[in-house]
Specification:
Layout (H helix, E strand, L loop, with lengths): L1 E6 L4 H12 L4 E7 L4 H11 L3 E4 L2 H10 L5 E4 H9 L6 E4 L7 H9 L3 E4 L2 H18 L2 E4 L2 H10 L7 E8 L9 H5 L3 H4 L9 H9 L1 H14 L6 E5 L5 E7 L4 E5 L5 H9 L30 H12 L3 H17 L5 H14 L8 H22 L2
Parallel strand pairs: 1-2, 1-5, 2-3, 3-4, 5-6, 6-7, 8-9
Antiparallel strand pairs: 8-10, 10-11
The structure holds magnesium ion.
The site of magnesium ion has 4 residues, from helix 7.
Length: 385
């Protein structure tokens, strides 16, 4: 029986994780839940799973939740509460599904403690990749990606010698602006950017899908997870989101990973690995008539993807700078303060104005994150519409 701590339980990955647990009552159980401010949902989740450890964002929320529950778990709050869930002694598995750089310390701590960490928080790998690998080695646990493309790559690459891999390709749906002209993209509204054609996700990642920054962050994530160089990771536009990744071998042939576009698939893969069991996702239906198409991303219309390659090649703290700038610019766009095209401009300005250093500590990358946010906010102030 795997005992799971879900960090970010009320988000889209968190709720899908609990659906997967529901489908495997003899294999999976929940011992800790960490949520933000959605008290009603975390209350329902607590009553269903009866975790002994719960954490919410604020002290007042923790008190309110205690008054609502019919049993008495340990209820924590804030960054310490999140850490209490990540390091819960009964948990052998941690699903790291906090959005943004806020998830870094808890992911690192869980790896250092030797847990199986199913990482959906891509910022952990983008911002602190080398630190996460160090923590993984020190703790002797496991790191399994929950991002669909990386779960696909894990399925394609697990157990293969690195020297047989020529390149990998992760697919991008292309987002809502895949076929839009440059001029139209430049004037895109928040509503248009939130209208993702194939995946239903939170607002931050949905905007990142519209700019292709999400794919850029995933390129960096793949480099960390699979010890690949920037030139070995390519992006293929595949609007149907049925092929999630491809492995290209030295002999020129490829293997593709295929499944429907439901995050419960990669979540179950990570939780049950190396086992494969029927789960909440129906098998792929090959009897249905389908057309798959593949294309090349246009870096002129999607400059954020080019910025991610630039940051990966620069190495060190460059991905942390880019990620922080992007979190700020996306938040400003969602708040209606800057335009869609400003996201890339802000990210580019921030990336080019801060010096890149080799990464040596979590504190340092968090300091870098902070400095990059300040720089990005200054840019946003100047460009607020
Ligand atoms: Mg993905």
């Amino acid at each position: 029986m795997r005992r799971i701590a879900v960090l970010g339980s009320t988000g889209s990955i968190g709720t899908s994780t609990l659906d997967v647990v529901e489908a495997h009552p003899d294999r999976l159980s929940v011992v800790a839940l960490s949520a933000g401010r959605n008290l009603e949902l975390v209350r329902v989740q607590c009553e269903r799973w009866k975790p002994s450890c719960v954490s919410v964002a604020e002290e007042a929320d923790a008190r309110a939740l205690a008054g609502l529950l019919t049993y008495k778990p340990h209820i924590h709050w804030g960054a310490e509460g999140l850490m209490a869930c990540a390091l819960h002694p009964e948990a052998d598995t941690v699903v790291a599904a906090i959005v943004g750089a806020a998830g870094l310390a808890s992911t690192e701590a869980a790896l250092r403690a030797g847990r199986r960490v199913c990482v959906a928080n891509k910022e952990s790998l983008v911002v602190g990749g080398s630190l996460m690998l160090r923590a993984l080695e020190a703790g002797g646990g496991e790191l399994l990606p929950v991002d669909s493309e990386h779960a696909a790559l894990h399925q394609l690459l697990a157990g293969r010698p690195l020297e047989t891999i020529r390149e990998v390709r992760i697919t991008a749906s292309g987002g809502p602006f895949r076929d839009w002209s440059l001029e139209r993209i430049q004037a895109a509204t928040v509503e248009e950017a939130l209208n993702h054609p194939t995946w239903k996700m939170g607002p931050k990642i949905t905007i990142d899908s519209a700019t292709l920054m999400n794919k850029g962050l995933e390129v960096i994530e793949a480099a960390v997870l699979f010890a690949l160089k920037a030139d070995q990771i390519q992006v293929t536009v595949h609007p149907q989101s049925q092929v999630h990744a491809m492995a290209g071998f030295t002999d020129g042939s490829y293997q593709l990973q295929v499944c429907g576009n439901d995050m419960k698939h990669p979540i179950q893969y990570a939780l049950l690995y190396p086992d494969r069991l029927p789960g909440p996702v129906a098998p792929y239906d090959w009897d249905q008539l389908r057309t798959w198409s593949f294309g090349v991303p246009d870096l002129e219309r999607f400059p954020c993807l080019a910025l991610a390659y630039e940051a990966l090649r620069a190495g060190g703290t460059a991905p942390a700078i880019l990620n922080a700038a992007n979190e700020e610019s996306v938040a400003a766009f969602l708040a209606g303060r800057i335009g869609f095209w400003d996201i890339a401009a802000c990210n580019r300005d921030t990336l080019s104005s801060l010096a890149t250093e080799p990464v040596h500590s979590l504190e340092q990358v968090l300091d870098t994150d902070h400095a990059a946010r300040l720089r990005a906010r200054t840019w946003i102030e100047k460009h607020t519409c």
